Amino acid sequence: MITRGIIVIITSNQTSNQSKKIAVLLILPILGFFFNDYVFFGFSSEFYYLAAIRIFLLFVVGFEIAHLGKIEKHQVYDHFVFWSTLSLIIGGGIINMTRPDNFMLHSIVAIMSLFVLDLVVPFRFLLQSFLAALLVIGEILIIIFFTNITEITITYTIIFSLIAAFIIAGLSSRQFHFYRRKTYEEFVHRQALQNSLQQHADNLSQLVEERTKELFEAQSRFLKSERLAAIGELAGMVGHDLRNPLSGIKNASYMLRKKQSNNLDTVGNEMLSIIDRSVEHANRIVSDLLDYSRELHLELEEYSPKSLIDYLLLSTKVPNNVKILDRTHSFPPIWVDAGKNERVFVNLASNAIEAMPNGGVLEISSSQNDENIEFTFADTGEGITAEVLAKIFTPLFTTKAQGMGFGLAICKRITEAHGGKISVKSIINKGTIFTVSLPIKPKQLESQNGKS
Q1: Cα–Cα distance between 395 and 438 in angstroms, integer?
Q2: Segment (H or E) for 421
Q3: Distance between CA 375 and CA 362 in Å, rounded?
Q4: Measured between alpha carbons, how far is 273 from 275 in angstroms, rounded to an integer?
Q5: Rg of the chain (C-alpha set)
Q6: CATH fold label, 301-451
């Protein structure tokens, strides 16, 4: 992994630029040696032979300059630099063999090339070492077999210098690679620490945001629960206090109708009917107040989904211009408190009918969703605005001229007492869909069975 990382660093844009600069510098001596070849050989066959080699080397260097910036993979880069450098070494060796008298210059150039190859040209250490060894061995063979050195000490000195340069350059290159490896390890470690720190910072920020959100939600729920508790307490007190006067008004109306029926004209009878209807409406409000304030106790029994809707249809007055489509199923049976659940369904059906004053269709359906039964009430009425939808289950919120705004709040409370949930979606002028999801077997029933 570390070696890959080092090679990735080597093949960066900066390294490619460095290799390009080295290649450009190689062009200058190659061009300069054209003049040197002319001085030695003139326009002879040897000159043209060497010129062809140098042109080939110029082509290799030019090709390297043109393509270094396009290489992305480190393996391709290593191979590219290796073969181009090998071509330069072989070409240089061939040229050196044609001028054995310049062995001292050849040796100096070879030693300089060793240090350039090991310390300046950036690519893999093993490939560097192979090319450096090839350069030294080739130069030694040229000195031994193609030069006319009479003094053996000079030969040994040059060979020793080449070998010493090879060892020193190799050790320096090894140290340089080791330094780059350590630098990369530190870079990776530092980068990992920075990433870890950034991740912890992001997690901490997200955690703070989540906790802040939960705190606001908890505070909102607490304030809402306090408000609902106060509403429930007030509702219970007001409900009990109003129930007795309403009963007195209803009894008085009944006695007037019974004892004074012969003395009442049409207007009198109509006034008594208005009183009866008003008392009935007030009684419904009082019942809503009491139902909302008292604790719910469910009496669960097994019913089919269709039977629950049948009870609803029997107890709901449906106008002639409203069509009811019953698409409920008989299976699977469900455990509910039929009396309380009937109130939920009656309320939803009544609201749907009221939302279609000019007539329409109310489709009631049931379907099984995992361990729940979903009852859907879909009307083709006026629809509900987004502002109203946001508050539709809030106690004391109503858009009707009559009523206290407890109807849907009680529906939600009864549904949640069963372990279910109620939701709504609506499109203006197209209709509204209420969905009541009830568990087939509520947790209360499972706990009761566990105890028994």
Answers
A1: 22
A2: strand 421-427
A3: 13
A4: 5
A5: 49
A6: Heat Shock Protein 90 (3.30.565)
- Say if residues 452 and 394 touch (Cβ distance below 8 Å): no
DSSP assignment letter at 420: -
The strand ranges marked E within 220-352 are 301-303, 322-327, 334-336
Structure confidence at residue 442 (pLDDT): 82
Single-letter code of the amino acid located at 49: Y
Question: How many Cα atoms within 13 Å fall on the side-chain side of residue 56?
Answer: 17
Q: Which residues touch 251 (CB under 8 Å, ≥6 apart)?
A: none
Burial class (CB in 10 A: 0-12, 13-18, 19+), 207: exposed
Single-letter amino acid, residue 395: P
Query: Alpha-carbon distance 312 to 362, whole Å?
Result: 13
Q: Which parts of the chain have pLDDT scores under 50? A: 1-12, 450, 452
Q: How many residues are given for the chain?
A: 452
Q: Could you tell me if 51 and 37 are in contact, meaning their C-beta atoms sit under 8 angstroms apart?
A: yes
Q: Are the C-beta atoms of residues 58 and 33 closer than 8 Å to each other?
A: no
Task: Name the residue among 70, 55, 47, 58 with its Cα closest to residue 23.
Answer: 58
CA distance 283 to 285: 5
- Give the Cβ contact number of residue 445 at 10 Å: 18
Given this model, what pLDDT does residue 195 score? 85
Residues 436 and 416: their CA atoms lie apart, in Å, by: 10
- Find tokens 């698409």 and name the residue: 327
CA distances from 166 to 135, 169, 199, 380 (A): 9, 5, 48, 93
Cβ distance 351 to 387 under 8 Å?
no
d(CA 129, CA 169): 9
pLDDT at residue 335, as a whole number: 93
Closest to 64 (Cα-Cα) out of 21, 23, 118, 22: 23
Q: Would you state the pLDDT for residue 13?
A: 56
Q: Return the DSSP state at 382.
A: -
Establish whether domains 216-293 and 301-451 are of one fold. Answer: no
Q: Which CATH code, of 2.40.370, 1.10.10, 1.10.287, 1.20.120, is assigned to 216-293?
A: 1.10.287
Look at residue 401 in the predicted model and tell me its pLDDT: 64
Q: Pairing between strand 360-369 and 322-327?
A: parallel
pLDDT at position 374, please? 95
The secondary structure of 30-56 as a DSSP string is: HHHHHHHHHHHH-SSHHHHHHHHHHHH
Domain ranges of the chain: 2-148, 216-293, 301-451
